[in-house]
Amino acid sequence: MEKLANKVAVITGGNSGIGLAIAKQFRAEGARIAIFGRDEKPLKLASEELGSGTVVIQGDVTRLADLDRLYRETTERLGKIDILVANAGIATFTPIDNTTETQFDQISDINFKGAFFTVQKAVAHLNPGASILLVTSAANTLGRQSLSIYAATKAAVRSLARSFSADLLPRGVRVNALSPGPILTPIFDRLGMPKEQLEEVAQTFVEQNPMKRFGTAEEMAQAALFLASPASSYVAGAELVADGGFSQL
Fold first, then answer.
1. How far is CA 249 from CA 11, 211, 228, in A?
2. Gap between the Cα atoms of 90 and 103, Å rounded
C-alpha cells in the first residue's frame, strides 16, 4: 500500500542530492510532486528522472516572489499541499579570519531566510493535517572549524521547527526537522576547497563516524518518508538525527 497516495508534496532543492532522493521516494509512495530549484540543467535532469506529471519550477528561496510563484503554480496544477520539504541549502567552509560579508549573507539568506519564508509563504496553501519537514544538519549541535556560519544557520532552522510547530499545530499542521550527517551528495563537492583538502575532510568524517562511512541520500529519503507520512502522526517539533551516530556517540 502506498504511504503517500494522492498527497501533494513540494520539495525545495528537489533537483539533486537529498531533495531529489526524497522526491523519488515520495513519488514511489504515490505522491504528486513539485520540485523547486535555482539551476536549469539539474532541474531538467531531475524532471527526466522523476517522469511525467512532476511540476518543475525554477526559482530562488531567497526571493519571495519566486516562492509565491511556486505555490501558485503548484496549487493550480496539483491542488493544495499536504507535504512541504524545505530542503534548499548550501554548505561552504568559511574560516573565521577570512570570511566575507558576502559569504555570510549568502549562507544566511539561503539556509535561514529561505527556510523561514518557504514555510511562511506555504501556510495559506496547506491542507489540514499537512506535514512540514525542515532539513537542517547534525552540524547544528557541533563545533567544527570553518563551519561557524553554516552550523549557526542550521541551528536556526532546528529552532524554526519548534516555533513553527507552536504556530501551526492549532491548524492541524505538524512541523519536524531532519538532521543529516555527512552525506555524499553534490553539495559536498561545492564546499569551496581544493580537491586534496576535500579528500582529507571526507576521510576525517569517515574516521569520526561510528559507522565509518558516509550516509546516502536514499537513507535520508527513508527518514523523510517517516516524518511526512501518517506513521509520525504523534511527532511534532522533533528532530530526527540521521547521521550514523556522528553527533551522538
1. 31, 10, 27
2. 11
Q: Which element (helix H / strand E) includes 27?
A: helix 17-28
Dist. CA 33–CA 154, nearest whole Å: 25
Residue 138 covered by a domain: yes
Residue 3 maps to a domain = no
CATH number at residue 94: 3.40.50.720
- Judge whether 247 lies within some domain: no
pLDDT tens by residue, 103-160? 999 999 999 999 999 999 999 999 999 999 999 999 999 988 889 999 999 999 999 9
* The C-alpha cell that represents 32 in the structure block: 504528486
Find cell 535532469 and name the residue: 45
Distance CA 198, CA 188 (A): 8
| Domain extent at residue 97 | 8-241
182 inside domain: yes
Element housing 208 (H / E): helix 195-208
The model carries a pTM of 0.95
Distance of CA 61 to the CA centre of its chain: 12
Query: Residue type at 70?
Result: L
| Closest to 178 (Cα-Cα) out of 215, 141, 138, 230 | 138
User: Catalytic one among 71, 117, 150, 214?
Assistant: 150
Q: How many domains does the chain have?
A: 1
Catalytic, 234? Answer no
